[in-house]
Amino acid sequence: MGNFRRKAWQEISNRPIEFLSVPCVAAFVGILTNWMGVKMLFYPVEYRGLDWKRWDKTPYGLFGWQGVVPTKTDLMARRLVKIITDKLLSLEEAFGRLDPNELGQLLLPGIEDAVDSALAGSDRMGGNLYAWGVKKILPWLMPHIVTSLKQEIDQVLDLETIVLSAFVRDKATLVDLFQKVGRVELDFLVNSGFGLGFILGLGQMVFWAAHPVAWTLPAAGAFVGYVTNWIAIRMIFEPAEPVEIVGGLFEIQGMFESRQIEVSDEFGDFMQKRVLTAGDLLKDLSLGGEDGELFKFLRRHLPYPIPSEILSAAVDGVANIAADPIKYADVHKYVNERLDISDTLARRLKVLSPTEFEDLLHPVFQEDEITLIATGGVLGLAAGGLQTQLGWGGANAVPRAIGTIVFTLFSSLFFFLEQEYELDHDEPLVSTERPQLRRRETVVRRRTQIPEDRSN
């Protein structure tokens, strides 16, 4: 062991610039592989490449790739929907906040317009005259209908179907959600690759100095590329529960779990603005026309003297209101504010245990995690192999080493800035009103002391 250290120290002392290039390349490999890993999680949204051979439910083909999240949208969305429906949100509770009289009056103009359109020129009792008579009783009917709808909302609307269809219909929505709530963790995953790569590269440098044989740099490069991804992902989620260290002075916890408060607010805000908007809910409520659940509900609660033509017009009226958030802005505003989806989801998420909360994002990394980590190993192997071809010693050794160091540092800076730009650029996806939330980018933190109660 003593000879190993002496030989390594002697070699590094004789050629410090050349050997410094080794950890610099390792740092570059670390940030490059982690950056690529993040990109491969989400992009491309649709499969790109030659579709000669594609394995079922996998992101890769023989000559192509699709982001892990878009590939497994259905599976990931179902997991997310289960969390929402089982632990976070009840439609009956949310719709219970609606005031029947107020909502009935807000819906009335849109439904009256639809009745006018349906009966205009009709032979039924003079058409326009009949429409006039129907509209006279609508103000009285609407509060009663809304009251009954609140009680039976789970029979008319299926929350699981609404959320699932929103994600499956547009894969980019799920991609945006995961990128939004996990932006700090994704940022850390990329940037930590540089630091972890450099530290591991120091060991690679010492090993190369003591054993300068051709296979050591590629092997160590593969190790660096593999391990930087693996360590970073572990630090994001483990341990889920806070663990005291140094006699309780500090505690260590996975980065994502430690941001439970911030993530909960952002998740609720995203879901209300992108998935469970008033427009989305009213649209799903009115689906199916005369075969839909809303029509069947109206038929159950209104006497048969009221013809199906009127009920169908009422359903069309709800659909028109859903499709025009500008003309019927007061309806959309009222429903969004009273349902309060954002606050409900956020409050429930905040009280989940860290282990339960982890399930919000961890499945993104668990799906094909080995593929992403192995990709880091392959890229590290290639970088190490390339490094052996740069040559060691000779008149041009130092200029080549300096060029390598400059290239790797500036390239690493590019990936760092690119990731920061994307995170800042994506910030308005959810809301431009909410100030940027506190980033708690720490795995180890000083333990918060609970002050003693001195009232006694």
Structural commentary:
By secondary structure, the chain is mainly alpha-helical. It has 2 domains: 1-82 and 182-262 and 354-418, no CATH class; 89-168 and 273-348, no CATH class. It is 70% helix and 5% strand. It contains 23 helices and 5 strands. The strands form 2 sheets. It has a 3-stranded antiparallel sheet, with no helix packed on it. The chain has a two-stranded antiparallel ribbon with strand order 1-2.
Describe the structure concisely for a colleague:
With 456 residues, the chain is mostly helical.
The whole-number mean of residue pLDDT values reads 81
Percent strand: under 5%
Please compute the radius of gyration using only Cα atoms.
30 Å
| Low-pLDDT ranges | 427-442, 449-456
> How many domains make up the coordinates?
2
Largest sheet: 3 strands, antiparallel
The sequence of SSEs as H and E is HHEEHHHHHHHHHHEEHHHHHHHHHHHE
The end-to-end distance, rounded to whole angstroms, is: 63 Å
Total strands: 5
Structural category is: mainly alpha
- Order of strands, main sheet, comes to 3-4-5
Note the total helix count.
23
Protein name: DUF445 domain-containing protein
Keywords: Membrane, Transmembrane, Transmembrane helix
